[in-house]
Every structure is written in C-alpha cells, then in structure tokens.
Design a protein that fits this description.
The protein is 46% helix and 10% strand. By secondary structure, it is α/β, with parallel strands linked by helices. The protein has a single domain, classed as Nitrogenase molybdenum iron protein domain (Rossmann fold, 3-Layer(aba) Sandwich), CATH 3.40.50. Helix 11 links the parallel strand 5 and strand 6. Keywords: Ion transport, Signal, Transport, Zinc, Zinc transport. It comes from Marinomonas fungiae.
C-alpha cells in the first residue's frame, strides 16, 4: 500500500496548484478577497501597502500577473487609471470592477454626511447594517444587492440619481469650501461597509464559478464575513457617536464614504489630490478655516509626508494624528476588513476626544 503514497512535496504542489490566482489592486480589495477566498485563493496585490494608487505605474511584471491571473479585482478607473487599458487588452473579461457593480453606492465629492444617502437608509431600516440583512432574509436572495430595490425607489441606480441632486448644489458645500474638494464620483468606495458586502458577494459568485468544488466554503465565508462586518459596524458607530460633531480636517478628500456612513464632521481637506502640495495662499486659507471652525484635529496619512500638516498647526493647539485609508499594517485574514474599520474609527476617536 505504501507504494501508492504521494510524496509530501508533491501533495503540497498539488494543493498550491488548486488555488485560484487572484490579482488585486489595493489592500482593502485584498481584505475582502481574502475573507471570501480563504485558503483557496492566492492573492497578488499590485500596489504596495506603503504606496498610493493615485500615482502608481505598471511594470512589465505587473502586466504578466494580470495575464496569468484567474481573476482581477480592482476599485475602478476613477482610482486605478493604470489598470483601465491593460484590462481592456486582456483576452476575455476576467475582472471585477467594484465601482461598476450593481448595488455599490457611489457618492459625489460634493456630498456631505447630512445629505440624502443617510436619510434614505434611515427610512428603510435601523441604519446599523442589520436592515440590509433582514431585507435579504425576508426575500431569501442573499445576493448583497439590497441597494438595488432601495435605490430604484429613488432613482435609476446607476449613480446619476445622485448627480441630479448634486447639480443643485454645484460649486459649494455647506462649509464654504469652494475649490477645496474634488468633483465627480468619489472612488474610495471601500470605506463604506455596505459597499464591502456588495463586493464580497460578487467575489463569492466569481470564485464559485472558477472553483465549483469549494462553492460551499465560499458561501460560508461570505456569511461569516457579513456577520463579522455587522458586529464591527455597530461597534464603530458606538465608538464614534461621542465625537461625531467634533470638527476636523483631513489630508485629502478620501474619507467621504466612511464619514457619511457614521455622520462625522469633516470641515475640509488640505489638498485636492495627494500628489499636489498646496500653495502658500491655500495654506493660509486653510489656517483661517481651521481657526474659524474651531478644528480639533488635522489628520495626515502614512502614504504621504505630514510636513504640510505640521506647518498648518504650528503655533496652534490643534492636534494631529494619522488616518490610514488603506489599512497598511493589517495582516490579511477573514477578519481584516472589519478590523480595518475598527482601526480607522480608533484613529478618528483618539484625536477627536
């Protein structure tokens, strides 16, 4: 009987070969893929954890990874412009574009935490994440696209219903920050936990099609992910509730989805885009706004130099802290995305208290 036993090294190689090869763009995407795929996926992430997707450049080795991948998961062309052309040139569509998924909530850069996105959700549930799950349990679909039915009541659900609303307010926001924010669709969709459920479901579907033998495992992983995310969502909401009205500035306008979801009081951003340093006049204007709004904290980011933040708060009692919108220090696991939300909430709360 022993002559039929396979060497351990061969068993390992067979196990490795059985994994689905998934190329991801950034760390938060990797977190969701890891949670659903578990040990059945091999993840290769293109953008280094210490780098920013805003100024990433593809190398020949990255193009080879795309070509060899079973699946590519990215946020969208608004964020990872470097992926648009290479993916279009691949033979056959094998990617998931998060921003293009039905059910993904897309906000506009001019949108504030007080606008209709939250009001709508509060009309339809208790706004702690469980209203989405109850909706699915009632209908038995578990497809993560509860947003479809909800948004169809209010618009065409392709993002344009939001556009009509925002065109009424174009050119200003309630804080008077003309010129201090982006325009168009905000690509930082991973900072809304409801959007994470939408991607998780799509990843489950695609992995199940690629690897039918592990379909049940992917389904179980998805259900576990949703449960853990709901727990984290409630915990984060409770932690941020005492500081949700405290005014602050961020380094660049990347946090709108998170801030809208938890109704925080962002008074503005230092720079339009993280690659561009603000000029002397902009710095002077921001210092004036910091004083006028009684700002408690100015946040920097680990991917960019905080020197400009130090200049802004010099001579004031304003505190500073680091917000990490990519979760660079977290190890990939089934719980890394919920842990990412909790860590980000802790970064906010520590500086705003």
């Amino acid at each position: 009987m022993l002559k039929y036993a396979l060497p351990a090294s061969l068993l390992l190689s067979v196990s490795a070969f059985a994994q689905t090869h998934v190329v991801t763009s950034i760390k938060p995407v990797s977190m969701v893929v890891s949670a659903i795929g578990g040990d059945q996926v091999k993840i290769e992430q293109l953008v280094n954890n210490q780098a920013s997707p805003h100024d990433f450049a593809m190398r020949p080795s990255d193009l080879r990874k795309l070509d060899q991948a079973d699946l590519v998961v990215w946020v969208g062309e608004n964020l990872e412009t470097f992926l648009e052309k290479p993916l279009a040139n691949l033979s056959g569509k094998k990617d998931i574009e998060w921003m293009a998924l039905s059910g993904t909530y897309l906000r506009q850069f001019s949108e504030t935490a007080d606008e209709h996105h939250h009001d709508e959700h509060e009309e339809h549930g208790d706004h702690d994440g469980h209203d989405h799950d109850e909706h699915h349990e009632e209908h038995g679909d578990h497809d993560g696209h509860d947003h479809d039915e909800h948004h169809e009541e209010h618009g065409d659900h392709d993002g344009h219903d939001h556009d009509e609303h925002h065109e009424e307010h174009e050119g200003h926001d309630e804080h008077g920050h003309e010129g201090h924010h982006h325009t168009g669709t905000d690509p930082h969709v991973w900072l809304d936990p409801v959007n994470a459920k939408v991607l998780a479901h799509e990843v489950m579907e695609k992995l199940s099609a690629l690897d039918p033998a592990h379909k049940q495992a992917f389904s179980d992983n998805y259900n576990t992910f949703v449960r853990m995310l709901d727990v984290a969502d409630k915990k984060v909401r409770a932690e941020l509730e005492p500081v949700k009205d405290v005014p602050y500035f961020v380094f660049h306008e990347a946090y709108g989805y998170f801030e809208n979801h938890y109704k925080l009081n962002n008074k503005g951003a230092i720079t339009l885009s993280p690659e561009r340093k603000p000029g002397a006049k902009t710095v002077a204007d921001i210092r004036t706004q910091i004083e006028q709004h009684n700002v408690a904290c100015v946040f920097s980011e680990p991917q960019f130099s905080p020197a400009i933040v130090d200049t802004l708060i010099e001579g004031t009692e304003v505190k500073t802290a680091v917000l990490d919108p990519l979760g660079v220090s977290l190890k990939l696991s089934s719980n890394s995305y919920p842990a990412f939300l909790e860590a980000l909430a802790g970064q906010y709360a520590a500086c705003l208290k």
